[in-house]
Amino acid sequence: MLPADIIAEILTRLPVKTLLQFRSVSRTWCSIIDSQSFIKMHLHQSTATNSFHRLILGSLGKGLYSVDLDSLDKAHVVKPPVSYKGFDSISNSCNGLILVMSDPLVPPVLWNPFSRKYKILSDAPIEYPARLLCLSQVFYGLGYDSRNNDYKVVRVVEFCKGTSRAWVCSTTEIYSLKSNSWNRVPVFPYPLPHMNENSEKWDVHVVHGALHTLVEDFLHVHSAKSFRIMAFSVENENHYEVMLPPNIQIKDAIMKLDVLRGCLCLVCASNTRVNNIWVMKEYGVEESWTQLLSVGPPSISLAYLKPLAYSKNGEKVLLNCDEKRLVWYDLSRKTIRNVNISGLPDKFYPEVCVESLVCPGSPGEGDGFKIHEQEKGKEKKINKNR
């Protein structure tokens, strides 16, 4: 029989679905696959080799969908972990975990859509900072604290005065998966952007253990710039700024922040409907911003462009166009090709998510994690076969 470390090395190259099936092979294999060291090895292998990535798509009132990034052939309906009404909004993904949300006043669910395990976060009552203020928006973002090996959820509650809906102030709490508790942290001193005009989702992006947001420089700190990239570290629980590309032309431009294979990227659409996409190749280094592509009419004529992923050979970039279709953009030939995926909803909001075995809780921590009903039967069968 092969040594356990060799078995583990081989198993890291398999998808999550296969690994869950292989837990029933023997007690040794089950012990290896369930171990925290293997879970980290598998995640590292999938990330480093750009393997086993999926698009998880939210849609307004039409549920959740999953698409394999390698095949891009069919959209599969994904059943949310709980049956609350309207659970079809997702936050950013982090190491295979996503937040599934419904009503802003209902606690979100931390979910691994590949292992099908989930955890309903503990409730945290909203406290109003002043009597005359009204609740405006509730935003959630998910990040990973590598120093403490802890997944954290940030909740930002925005308040306004009366019916004006204009931002007045915010309160911020952070949830620790390890402690299963919420704590107050320094407030976000600026209003947060929506993903789009039809969604109340926070347009947030995780890189280097921090939540990044493109915000309007409403305080006019930088007279020559109307936008700033602000970051909040879930490890240190502090705010800091990440510089924009030097000499970028942002006057009258529409700007969006994204992440492409672990790097911050910036989409800048001019009034001529030309989209320029910049990538920060070395995090925190202003000079490392590099223009990846520039595309516009007649190839693409639209107002919204979202980069999602590189092809396996790195020669193409998958783009979401106006939240209605996907295209491959060839970086060398500067051409586009439509991607035909059956079963896609008319409008969708995709998140790239790596398959992982990361658990949204542990059986020994109070209410712990839960498993979908259809998975419980499989667990019993595995235990019986050991």
From TrEMBL:
Region (Disordered): 366-386
Domain F-box, residue spans: 1-41
PROSITE patterns per UniProt: FBOX
Domain of life: Eukaryota
Residue ranges of the TM segments: none
Pfam families linked: F-box, FBA_1
Biased composition (Basic and acidic residues): 367-386
InterPro entries xrefs: F-box-assoc_dom_typ1, F-box-assoc_interact_dom, F-box-like_dom_sf, F-box_dom, SCF_F-box_component
Gene3D superfamilies: 1.20.1280.50
PANTHER family reported for this sequence: BNACNNG10540D PROTEIN (PTHR31672), F-BOX PROTEIN CPR30-LIKE (PTHR31672:SF13)
Name recorded for this polypeptide: F-box protein CPR30
Organism of origin: Abeliophyllum distichum
